[in-house]
Every structure is written in structure tokens, then in C-alpha cells.
Design goal:
single chain; about 525 residues; alpha/beta; Chemotaxis Receptor Methyltransferase Cher, domain 1; Rossmann fold; 7-stranded mixed β-sheet; 3-stranded antiparallel β-sheet; 22 helices; about 50% helix; about 15% strand; binds S-adenosylmethionine
């Protein structure tokens, strides 16, 4: 007989999953929710659903609990080339233009499919790219596909599909990109499979953009049929983070019914053949800097930025004039104020603007002055990060090296350099830089973790295990909810879970070692 669950308990459970997973369950979907709670209770080893809910609500949930719940409560409805027209636009407009603008200069593309379910969507994107770029080996293509549901991700990595996954897919795609296997399943061709990297990521709780999980400097983000499960408030937060994860002129793709909030955000809706894509277009663009002197008014305004709206109208932003007044009142030095402005732009995701301000600040600093309010290397470091988030990794490396030259004792500079070198596929260089981090600070957790990842990538499991082991040992000094230094927001609990996930995806040996030590 079906167990009747008190409404108050269900309400509290809904609050919990909204807090942890972002999922919103209105009363009209409670029948669905109750069925899935029943299945989750089984998985957690409970016969009695009410007792299970009471337990969930009385204990602080571990990352593993959250993950298990997500496996039961998320909906993974998806198929290849879903919303066919948007794939047309992707191919004929967005990617066509992007590829043309990068060809022969900066041959890289970075795409993130957030909420990828069982992989049909990111593989569809990979197929389009494969079709468009004949010399694909000469390109650096990243297709990152993330989801909260690890069962879905496992299925996605297997790359085996039933005919139902092709319900709107043209026959030629099935013929050209899949092979029929013995179990009557379709296996995606290995070269397409290799183009996509699957990784767990909770859009509600995880950190992005971050170099650590490769969610920065994206050209295109797909997040389709995911917002429908979230509250407006959460969508707003996610949009803000996506905006920061995109390079300037990057694109966000949502499903046709999910565009409303994007319109209210800074994204510019662009319509192609009835499909709307959302562009991160910087409305006010810094085009020049003028020096205007004392005769302008009571306060000499040294610098004034002229901004030009994309539409052609000219708007002037005289924040620096106002800042001058503020500065005099607060007696803040000019350098500090400019630096703060750059930091503010960086935090808003306006990386080009941040770079402009920092370059101006840097070039206006006298070489011979030693007691500067903001040290040159601090400016160089933020410049390197701003360039990295624009996908300009050559410039990022140059400024990171400059920062290191100016101050050789900052472990975070070497850490940033390692992530940039890794991005450039120079894993040996990245490892050497991480070792320098540990020489300066042996407790730099993320350096141990990155060394674990990079050595695993180099097929050196023994070394890799040692670094993960060190990471787990150091993590013991932190509470699970504590944010780790230099992590841009990642918590100790989350990192521990990530290591366990890596272990379960890799060799049995790795699992044994990690379980023994933690
Ligand atoms: C309906 S599917 C959409 C799949 C695909 N994007 C498409 O449009 O065909 C929704 C996906 O969002 C994922 N999801 C739900 N909540 C999430 C969260 N908090 N973080 C990450 N993914 C989430 C689910 O696991 C599920 O795979």
C-alpha cells in the first residue's frame, strides 16, 4: 500500500532540494516527486519513506547524499539534434562566423553544455563541429559537458544509444556518425566521442567560471531545458555566472521557452530564422582615453573614458571624474581606485574593460617609484587572469610571467601559470610550475590536486595517487563547507567528492588507495 507522507514533511523536503540542487517542485508535480523519493529511499537503505525524509531533514547532507538524491530527482529527457532549427543556426551562423574569424589566427573553440543529461546534446554539437572543420586536428576544440546526475554522465561517457535518442535526427547523421552494435544500440564514433569531456557540476552549488573546472573563457554555453526546473532567483544567479564564464561576444543558448530571463539580463537577444541566441555584447566599449586638464572645472579630471554604444550612440562615462572627488574626500590614492575599478569590471565579467583599465594603470605608473600603493606584480597578475578569461592565453602567459619576474615568491602566480600552460597543452611545463608552487607553499592544496590530475593525464598513476593522497590529507584541516584558498569558491567537501569521483572513474588501484587513506 502507498505510504501517505505528511504535507509539511514534503514541503520541508522541497525546500531542501531547492537549496541543494536548485530544483523546484510545485504541488502539481508531487506525485512524481513521491515516486522518486521512494526509489531514493531504497538506495539509501530505507524501507520507510517518512523515516527516510525525517533522517534527510535532520542531518547535514554530505556531497555524496546530494549526489545520490540528484540521481533520483532530475529529469534527463533529451535527444540528438533537439530543437533542430537551433542546430541550423549554430552551424550556419554562430559557428560559421566564429570559425571564419579564428581560422589562421587563433584556432580554438570552447563550448560548454551545462545540464547535458546523457550526452546527446554535446555529441550533436561535436558532430556539427566535425562537419564544419575539415582540418580539425589543427584546432584546439573543447566541448565540456556537465551535469549533476552522475548516472547520466556515466551513460554519456559510454556513448551507446537506443533508436529513441534519434527521434528528430536526420538519417544521414545516424549513418555517418554511429555504428550499430550487437545489443541493437548505436555507438557514437570514437573520434566524436573523444571531442567531449564529461564532468559533474552542480549549477546551484558549484563554482564557475573557474580555471579549475575549465568553465572560463567559453565561446558558447548551451543550457537548454534546465532553467525550467529552477526558480527565477536561481536563474538570475546562474545567468550572472554564465555571463562571467563567456568571452566577450560569446553566446548563450537556451531553449525557446527559457529566453525571458536572458532578456532581462545583460545578454542581447539576436534572432536568426526565428531562433533567439543570447550574446554577451559589451554595451559600453572603451574606445579612447583623453587627458582633460584643470580648466574643466574645480577638480582636475585627468582621465575620461569615452564609451561608444554598439548602436552608434556615444555615451560618456565620467566615473573617474566622480571618483577623483570621492578619492579626495576619502584620501584614496588614484592607483588604488583604478585598481578597484578594474577588479569590479573583472568581477562583472567585463574582462576587456578590466584589461583596458589595468593597462592604463600600469603604463601610468612611474618606473622609478618604489613605494607604490598597488604593486606592479598585483596588476600584472590580474591582467593575466583577465586575458585568460577572454581566451587570450598567449597574453595571459606573458603577463603571468611578468608578474613572476616582478615577485618570485608568490605561489598563486606559479599556480596561474600552471593552469595557463596546461591550457596550452604544455603539461610538462604546467607540472614544473606546480612544483614551484609547492616549493613556496607545501600546503597549497590546489597545486597537489592539479598535480594529481596532470600526472594522471600523463598515465602516471603512482605519482597521481600520491598527489591525490596529499590533497585528501590536507583537506582534513578544513571543514567540508569551508572555501579553499585560491579556489575562487570551491569548498573542501566538494573537492573531496571530486577526488572520489575521479577515483571511481579511474583504476581500481586508485580507488583502493584513496579509500584507504580518507
Ligand atoms: C531535461 S534535461 C536537458 C538535457 C539537454 N540539455 C537537452 O536540452 O536536451 C535537464 C538536465 O539538467 C540537469 N540538472 C538539473 N539540475 C541541475 C543542477 N543543479 N546542476 C546541473 N545539472 C542539473 C539534469 O540532471 C538533466 O540532465
Amino acid at each position: 500500500m502507498k505510504q501517505k507522507i505528511p504535507e509539511q514533511l514534503l514541503n520541508r523536503f522541497c525546500d531542501l532540494i531547492s537549496e541543494k540542487l536548485g530544483l523546484r517542485y510545485e504541488k502539481d508535480r508531487w506525485h512524481h516527486l513521491i515516486r522518486h523519493i521512494g526509489l531514493a529511499a531504497d538506495d539509501f537503505g530505507y524501507d520507510d519513506v517518512e523515516l527516510f525524509l525525517q533522517w534527510l531533514l535532520s542531518e547535514p547532507l554530505t556531497q555524496k547524499d546530494v549526489s545520490l538524491l540528484a540521481n533520483h530527482l532530475t529529469v534527463g529527457e533529451t535527444y540528438f539534434f533537439r530543437h533542430k532549427n537551433s542546430f541550423e543556426v549554430l552551424e550556419k551562423n554562430i559557428l560559421h562566423d566564429l570559425i571564419a574569424s579564428r581560422r589562421g589566427r587563433d584556432q580554438r573553440l570552447r563550448i560548454w553544455v551545462a545540464g547535458c543529461a546523457t550526452g546527446e546534446e554535446p555529441y550533436s554539437v561535436a558532430i556539427v563541429i566535425d562537419k564544419l572543420i575539415r582540418d580539425i586536428r589543427d584546432w584546439d576544440i573543447t566541448i565540456l559537458a556537465t551535469d549533476i546526475n552522475q548516472n547520466f554522465l556515466k551513460k554519456a561517457s559510454d556513448g551507446l544509444y537506443r533508436k529513441w535518442s534519434f527521434r528528430e535526427t536526420p538519417e544521414w547523421i545516424i549513418n555517418n556518425y554511429f555504428t550499430l552494435t550487437q545489443g541493437n544500440k548505436y555507438a557514437i564514433l570514437p573520434h566524436i566521442k573523444e571531442m567531449v569531456v564529461f564532468s559533474p557540476l552542480n549549477l546551484k552549488e558549484d563554482v564557475y567560471p573557474s580555471i579549475l573546472n575549465n568553465t572560463n573563457a567559453m565561446d558558447i554555453i548551451f543550457c537548454r531545458n534546465v532553467f525550467i526546473y529552477f526558480s527565477n532567483e536561481l536563474i538570475k544567479e546562474i545567468l550572472h555566472k554564465f555571463y562571467r564564464s563567456l568571452v566577450e561576444n560569446g553566446w548563450l543558448v537556451v531553449s525557446p521557452v527559457e529566453g525571458l530571463q536572458c532578456r532581462e539580463h545583460d545578454f542581447r537577444p539576436v534572432n536568426y530564422l526565428g531562433e533567439t541566441f543570447y550574446k554577451k555584447e559589451i554595451i559600453a566599449k572603451c574606445i579612447s582615453q583623453k587627458k582633460i586638464f584643470a580648466d574643466e572645472g574645480a577638480y582636475p579630471v585627468k582621465k575620461r573614458y569615452e564609451f561608444e554604444k554598439i548602436s552608434g550612440e556615444t555615451a560618456q562615462l565620467d566615473s573617474l571624474a566622480g571618483n577623483k572627488i570621492l578619492r579626495e574626500l576619502r584620501q584614496e590614492p588614484e592607483e588604488e581606485l583604478l585598481y578597484k575599478e578594474a577588479l569590479k569590471s573583472f568581477e562583472k565579467g567585463l574582462y576587456g574593460e578590466a584589461t583596458d583599465i589595468l593597462m592604463k594603470l600600469y603604463s601610468s605608473m612611474p618606473d622609478n617609484k618604489n613605494e607604490l600603493q598597488i604593486k606592479r606584480d598585483v596588476i600584472m597578475y590580474l591582467l593575466a587572469k583577465s586575458y585568460a578569461n577572454q581566451g587570450k592565453i598567449e597574453d595571459a602567459l606573458e603577463w603571468c610571467n611578468n608578474a613572476i619576474k616582478a615577485d618570485k615568491l608568490q605561489p598563486n602566480y606559479y599556480y596561474l601559470r600552471a593552469t595557463i600552460l596546461h591550457e596550452q597543452k604544455n603539461t610538462d611545463g604546467a607540472i614544473a610550475s606546480l612544483k614551484q608552487v609547492l616549493y613556496l607553499d607545501p600546503n597549497f592544496i590546489l597545486a597537489h590536486f592539479a598535480l594529481g590530475n596532470f600526472t594522471l593525464e600523463q598515465q602516471k598513476p603512482e605519482e597521481s595517487f600520491r598527489y591525490y593522497e596529499n590533497t585528501l590529507l590536507l583537506l582534513k584541516n578544513y571543514k567540508p563547507e569551508e572555501v579553499l584558498p585560491e579556489s575562487e569558491g570551491i569548498t573542501a567537501g566538494r573537492l573531496k567528492e571530486i577526488i572520489h569521483m575521479i577515483s571511481s572513474r579511474n583504476s581500481v588501484l586508485l580507488q583502493d588507495i584513496i579509500h584507504l587513506k580518507s
